[in-house]
Design a protein that fits this description.
It is a single chain. By secondary structure, this protein is of the alpha/beta class. The protein has a single domain, classed as Aldolase class I (TIM Barrel, Alpha-Beta Barrel), CATH 3.20.20. Helices cover about 30% and strands about 15% of the residues. The chain has a 7-stranded parallel beta sheet. Helix 6 links the parallel strand 6 and strand 7. The longest helix is centred in the first third of the chain and has 13 residues. It is globular and about 40 Å long.
Length: about 180
């Protein structure tokens, strides 16, 4: 589950089957973001990943960080992170997935698989055939993102994804 940048999802109790909450709140200051992260950790439940702010994630004791595709290399974060700290990396093609593996990421988050439901389309959707081809050659688990719905989530897993991520799919009552 990924928060939607408006803090609306942060207070919602996640649905069953959610392993991680990725806190993506770019409008918050570091102090405010740390407050949200600490609150979620204190509430128990899914493990918390902080979007592109390894400093906040480490300081608050989060499970890990999700890095944008142009962020610092995962192996550099490993130097200062505690043991077991998870690092996921946003990827948009096979070369980026390979680079994420080379640089020490734990997971690649590949997007968009389908047209996103929560934001404007910024790049062409990869589709299930590309997801299948990329996961077949990937050296780390790949999480599918972008336009994920209840109806197509299983198709992503069948295509080789280790799981799915999203914003809209985890909002209560969403069926598309």
């Amino acid at each position: 589950m990924i928060t939607d940048g408006s803090s609306r999802c942060v207070d919602a109790s996640p649905r069953s089957g959610v392993d991680f909450i990725q806190v993506r709140e770019p409008g918050l200051t570091a102090r405010a973001l740390a407050g949200v992260v600490r609150k979620l950790i204190a509430g128990g439940g899914p493990r918390i990943l902080v979007n592109d702010r390894a400093d906040v994630a480490i300081a608050c004791g989060a499970a890990g960080v999700h890095l944008r595709d142009n962020s610092v290399a995962p192996h550099l974060i490993r130097r200062i992170a505690p043991p077991g700290f998870l690092i996921t990396v946003a990827c948009h093609d096979e070369a980026a997935v390979s680079r994420a593996a080379d640089e020490g990421a734990d997971y690649a988050v590949l997007a968009p698989i389908f047209a996103p439901l929560s934001k404007p389309l910024s790049r062409p959707p990869l589709g299930l055939d590309a997801l299948c081809a990329i996961t077949a050659r990937a050296r780390l688990p790949v999480i599918a993102l972008g336009g994920i719905t209840q109806e197509n989530a299983e198709l992503c897993v069948q295509a080789g994804a280790a799981g799915v991520a999203g914003i809209t799919i985890f909002r209560s009552g969403h069926r598309r």
